[in-house]
Write a structure and sequence with these properties.
The chain is built from seven helices and two strands. It is an all-alpha fold.
């Protein structure tokens, strides 16, 4: 599950549509939040928090809800826009809403507009790959450096 959105994100357009669609489809199918949670294998608290706008869902959450609720992929289709809003709402990971930002791909060949949901998803994927590469690197042995510094 993703970070808690700030209160300003609770009223954002794509997130609001996502929450409304989720609630509408769940109630049309006659499911409680608990019943949906059991079927999608997320907690009831997660379902409630996403519907209330206290948390962002995840792509996996959207896909599972689409499958269980038979939405024809409507929630997953909204997900790139929700992810873009999440990115914009988190100042550490992206621009605040209203700011225009350009994201530079790792190879530096072209710039992407952070308002484009596909570009945001691609940037997130690149960041995940870079983080994976960093975490996979062996730790540097500090002992030789310390002995050289003491000499």
């Amino acid at each position: 599950m993703n970070r808690t959105p700030p209160s300003s994100a609770a009223g954002s357009d794509a997130s609001h549509r996502f929450r409304s669609e989720l609630r509408d489809w769940r109630t049309r199918r006659g499911l409680t939040q608990r019943a949906l949670a059991e079927r999608v294998r997320f907690s009831r608290e997660t379902v409630a928090a996403v519907e209330a706008g206290r948390r962002y869902g995840s792509h996996e959450f959207a896909v599972r809800c689409d499958e269980v609720l038979g939405t024809g992929g409507r929630l997953a289709a909204l997900w790139p826009q929700v992810a873009a809003e999440q990115l914009a709402a988190d100042g550490r990971r992206g621009p605040r809403s209203g700011e225009v930002a350009r994201l530079e791909p790792a190879n530096g060949t072209r710039r992407r507009d952070a308002r484009d949901p596909e570009a945001v998803v691609a940037a997130i994927d690149e960041l995940r790959e870079l983080i994976g590469q960093v975490l996979a690197q062996p730790e540097v042995d500090e002992a030789p450096r310390r002995s050289a510094e003491q000499a």
